[in-house]
Structure formats: C-alpha cells, structure tokens
C-alpha cells in the first residue's frame, strides 16, 4: 500500500530562523517556498529523499517535549561536531554509541525540536 515517506511537517514560530538553521547551518537545500492560506511554507531536503516541511504559525500543535525527533545521517560525526562548534550550535545530548556501527548526537532547532545527527559505520 505505502510506497515511501514524502515529508515530515513542523510548525515553527519563525520561518526565517528555521531556514537559517536547517538550510544555512545544516545544509538542507530549499526545494521550494510558497504561501498557502496565509501561511509561509518551505520544503527542504535532498532530491528523492523525504522532505522537511516547515510551516510558520503562532500556534504550536506539536510541542518539542512530545518526544519527536528528526534524524539525519552524516559522513563523519566528529566532523559534524567540529562544524557545530564553529556555528555555535550546542550538542544537547551525546555522543551516544549504542553499538559498534552507530554513533549519534542530538541538537535542538530554533523551536526546541530535537535533531539527531548519526554516523553509521
């Protein structure tokens, strides 16, 4: 029945701050920006991958403490941590290594949502 996951939506308070984080700092390409029913929306992500949809709005439907996180794979966790330090993005948790093939950290986006950066060996 299902073929693939198309996108994950986050409602954010400040779209520009979120774009600075996800696009400028983490490097997710902006696929498109548009307005729908008075709301600014941006779709980010790599071609043929699940997109991250950011919708600007004042109401928060999903709270950061709900336990939802977004995970991205990195080529080198050590290099990612160096880059985060340069960008002034603190590591919220980790690094964690639950097995010899996986290491990850968590950082927080401007709205407090957790973003996991994982390295698979």
From TrEMBL:
**GO terms for MF:** lyase activity
Q: Does the keyword Lyase apply?
A: yes
Q: Which InterPro entries match?
A: Fosfomycin_Res_Enzymes (IPR051332), Glyas_Bleomycin-R_OHBP_Dase (IPR029068), Glyas_Fos-R_dOase_dom (IPR004360), VOC_core (IPR037523)
Is Transmembrane helix a UniProt keyword of this protein?
Answer: no
- Provide the alphabetized UniProt keywords: Lyase
Q: Where is the VOC domain?
A: 4-120
- At the top level, the lineage of the source is Bacteria
Name of the protein this chain belongs to:
Lactoylglutathione lyase
Q: Which organism is it from?
A: Paenibacillus pabuli
């Amino acid at each position: 029945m299902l073929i693939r996951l198309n996108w994950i939506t986050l409602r954010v308070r400040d779209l520009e701050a979120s774009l600075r984080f996800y696009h400028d700092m983490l490097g997710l390409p902006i696929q498109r920006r548009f307005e729908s029913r008075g709301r600014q929306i941006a779709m980010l992500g790599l071609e043929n991958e699940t997109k991250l949809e950011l919708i600007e709005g004042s109401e928060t439907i999903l709270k950061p403490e709900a336990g939802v996180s977004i995970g991205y794979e990195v080529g080198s966790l050590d290099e990612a941590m160096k880059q985060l330090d340069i960008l002034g993005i603190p590591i919220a948790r980790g690094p964690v290594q639950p097995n010899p093939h996986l290491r990850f950290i968590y950082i927080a986006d401007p709205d407090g949502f957790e973003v996991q950066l994982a390295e698979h060996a």
